[in-house]
Amino acid sequence: MTDHVPLPATSAVRVPRPVYADLFGPTTGDRVRLADTDLLVEIEEDRCGGPGRSGDEAVFGGGKVIRESMGQARTTRAEGAPDTVITGAVVVDHWGIVKADIGIRDGRITAVGKAGNPDTMDGVHPDLVIGPETEIIAGNGKIVTAGAIDTHIHFISPTVVEQALTSGITTLVGGGTGPAEGTKATTVTPGPWHLARMFAALESHPVNIGLLGKGNTVSADAMHSQLRGGALGFKIHEDWGATPAVIDACLRVCEETGAQLAIHTDTLNEAGFVGDTLAAIAGRTIHAYHTEGAGGDGGEGVADEPGLV
Question: What superfamily in CATH does domain 148-303 come from?
Fold first, then answer.
């Protein structure tokens, strides 16, 4: 028998950045344009691989890595394997911008780091061990970030949910009952019956919902009834009458219960001017969508307030 002759050593293969980005997504030092804006983000760290660590990226598909005894370990869910792993996504969050694999269990993010099989790959996060019960979502070339919150939704049609999701909005706060006149003008879901119907209609939509009851009343009983029906807070709108008495009465209920109040004030100045509204608010917390200035005072009342343009 002849002696075994080892194969000659080969030099490492260098992959050009554009090719690497096509295969695995951008990496450390790459800049990514945000949609059709002129805003750029730079990836600060690649936890999946990247310069000096390439070759162990966890990717799924024909001829790729996440397979039994390769990128997939034997770890069961009971032993800590995630339900789902999002591979190679660019994570944009307040603490930084990194490329990483994301682990999910019970519908919640459990880890952001390097996923794979620690028996065959280096640097695998202990909470990102891919097992036979793990599903894979390819995040390569995509951005993962916190969902936005829209606090002024007219629930006129179910299509508002689809439109919100396509814009990255995952929490919708507002009101309405469908294509009704009150809904088209104001973000209000009045009364427990309408609240119950709206919650039932929105149950199947994959977004967080907060509905505002009608705050245009001096009846504390009516407001408490809406809170018991599930209202997140209240909306006062001038089309229902945004008088100083209404503002004060609603804020009193909000102070008692911890509910929130949004307001579209009396822009026609039928019941007063900016000073009258501020006197009714009396330093209490409120969110103002629209404020006086379109009516009788010509805008001077708003312009006189410090910090407002």
Answer: Metal-dependent hydrolases (3.20.20.140)
223/157 Cα distance (integer angstroms):
25
Q: Read off the tokens for 30.
A: 């790459």
Identify which of 161, 143, 152, 144 has the alpha carbon closest to the alpha carbon of residue 208.
161
CB burial of 166-198 (b: ≥16 within 10 Å; e: otherwise) equals eeebebbbbbbbeeeebbeebbbbbbbebbeeb
pLDDT tens-digit series, residues 238-281: 999 999 999 999 999 999 999 999 999 888 888 888 888 899 99
In this structure, whether the domain defined by 17-144 belongs to CATH 3.90.79.10 is answered with no
Question: How far is the C-alpha of 231 from the C-alpha of 254, rounded, in Å?
Answer: 12
The pair of three-digit structure tokens given for residue 128, joined into one six-digit string = 């990102």
Angstrom distance (rounded) from CA 38 to CA 34 = 7
Short-list 87, 20, 21, 83, CA closest to 59:
87
Annotated binding site for substrate: 237
Per-residue pLDDT tens over the stretch 18-44: 899 998 999 999 999 998 899 999 999
Binding annotation: 237
Which strand (E) or helix (H) includes residue 49? none
The number of CA neighbours under 13 Å toward the Cβ of 61 is 8
Distance CA 278, CA 283 (A): 8
Q: Residue count of the chain, please give it.
A: 309
